[in-house]
Design a protein that fits this description.
With 117 residues, this protein is an alpha+beta fold. The chain is 30% helix and 40% strand. Keywords: Membrane, Transmembrane, Transmembrane helix.
């Protein structure tokens, strides 16, 4: 019968590219019985569109002696929603077209007034 006394689990992410929305990055428990599992979760939100490598989770536990373990690191591709990506193109395009239409309208009015004189 294996009983693990004191278990410390931590994960990390780049705080420049992500915000912690909910949960905790560190979890500590006093003991784990055989067959028992512990799950903890957290929610992060990306700040920008990018390709990011999340660092591995780290576990430190004591069973007769201190033992440590690391999970795999993973790469995450963060993509903005399609609506936002389209607005990056449509927004400036609509503004440019509006300015062009106003410019053409004003120049035609100016030419019309010029010929009336």
């Amino acid at each position: 019968m294996k009983i693990i006394f004191f278990c410390f689990i931590s994960t990390s992410f780049n705080k420049i590219e992500f915000d912690l929305i909910s949960g905790s990055l560190i979890h500590t428990t006093l003991n784990i019985l055989p067959g028992e599992s512990i799950t903890f979760s957290y929610k992060i939100q990306a700040k920008t569109q990018s390709l990011v490598e999340l660092k591995p989770a780290f576990i430190e536990y004591y069973y007769l002696e201190g033992l440590k373990g690391l999970s795999n690191s993973i790469q995450v591709k963060v993509i903005l929603p399609k609506f936002i990506r389209v607005s990056f193109v449509l927004g400036p395009t609509l503004i440019s077209l509006s300015i062009l239409i106003v410019f053409i309208w004003k120049t035609r009015r100016y030419k019309a007034k010029k010929y009336d004189l």
